[in-house]
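Q: I'm writing up a methods section and want to include an example of the input and output format. Could you take the sequence below and give the corresponding predicted structure tokens, formatted cleanly so I can copy it straight into the document?
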Amino acid sequence: AVIPPKQYGLVCSNEFEIIRPKNGLNPYVLCHILRTDIVQNQIVNLTSGTSSSHNRIKTEQLANIQISMTSDDKELEKLGEKLKKSTDSIYKAERVIKDALSNLEV
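A: Here is the clean output for your methods example:
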């Protein structure tokens, strides 16, 4: 998930890893790259046992994941804008569907 800057502090379960993009990388590009099959397969291979059905990955192991991407900053900037727009559209559509379905409930 991409969490935009907020004026107040946020907390999350320590079962999640917080990743911040560096060197101006668009957070939406990072988010979607992390969801690609090649990255997901690497993450799955890092799992080391389960606890309450949650697979565990050591924080240090995440730094070893190989991500291939272009170095063209303009191309990445365009991609980031496109991914942000598309992600926003998905959430907007989901809200419309949820609101429409809630009107059906009695």
